[in-house]
Amino acid sequence: MSEPQEFPAYLDVDYDAGAGEDPADYPTVADKVEKAIEVTREGLEKYENPAVMWTGGKDSTLTLYFIKEVAEEYGYDVPPAVFIDHYQHFDEIHDFVDHWAEEWDLDVIYARNTDVGEYAEEHDLEPGDDIPVSELSEHNQHHVREILEYEEDSFPFLLDTYVGNHLLKTVALNDTLEEYDIDGVISGVRWDEQEARADETFFSARHDPDIYPPHDRIQPILQFDEAAVWDAFWQVVVPETVEGYPDDGYVPESADDLPDGVSADDIPVSPKYFAGFRSLGSEVSTEKSEEEPAWLQDLESTTERAGRAQDKEDLMERLRDLGYM
């Protein structure tokens, strides 16, 4: 791995691009798509070893679509997708990722904190059961005691807690970035998604070696809001990638309301969204918002991530400082 102080030397990106902007600065879906393609192309061109974060959710799948399209048009390699397996996913998420990784011929890197996961499996733990800090590896104990300054003897095996989220997601990610020497992380975060992300820029430096392996975040869809993400799927992504789908788009009202010859399995949209979920977190702490598909719900007057327990703990700002997306 390059010396941390040398990391930015071969890059020429504008870390202020997007500062002070919001989704309204890109008023149409076409404007948002154009900007996403521009940022994606610059990311694939300038970074030596990029990777894309893929959760199986709508935002990261939309980002992956832009990467595939730009790579094909301009002759770049499609970077590997990093999937953080935090051991508490819905089964449908794993099935979706496996299916579309094969369909789109993707190289998927599974980022796991195996120290925590294997302890939980070995002791037949359920989410919420306690794990003694003393049973963790020296690496994980360092994060718990020195980084998080957590003083309790144990912590719950639960994703949507301070210690659980950091170990199962952030440590897993940072260890993977170091192992694969990744210099640019392409992610699907959006300005409107959470207050902690509202000030992000299209290229965001993460160069402090005391916190994470030095890298940049490349963020092509900051300018999308939730409604625009779904508009992009039904107007652009699905018509262009699904054989037999109407070229002018079609917005289904359910998984059974699709054009003739097209099934929900043919659509690069997680079945959880068809079922009424608007945000995909962990199986034990995420609830559906309504019975109707996510894109048909009241997106303007309700909160996208209201069904996720993590937001109740006001953790995002602290977790992002430690390397979370």
SSE diagram, text form:
Layout: H1 29-46, E1 50-53, H2 58-74, E2 81-84, H3 91-103, E3 108-111, H4 114-122, E4 130-132, H5 138-147, E5 154-156, H6 162-179, E6 184-186, E7 203-206, E8 215-218, H7 226-241, H8 271-274, H9 316-321
Parallel strand pairs: 1-2, 1-6, 2-3, 6-8
Antiparallel strand pairs: 4-5, 7-8
Indicate the percent of residues in helices: 25-40%
Q: The CATH topology is what?
A: Rossmann fold
What is the CATH architecture assignment?
3-Layer(aba) Sandwich
Approximate shape: globular
List the secondary-structure elements in sequence, H or E: HEHEHEHEHEHEEEHHH
User: What is the percentage of strand-forming residues?
Assistant: 5-15%
Output the CATH class name. Answer: Alpha Beta
Question: What's the total helix number?
Answer: 9
Low-confidence stretches: none
From the N-terminal CA to the C-terminal CA, the straight-line distance is 22 Å
Average per-residue pLDDT, rounded, comes to: 91
Q: In total, how many domains does the architecture comprise?
A: 1
Side by side, the strands of the main sheet go 3-2-1-6-8-7
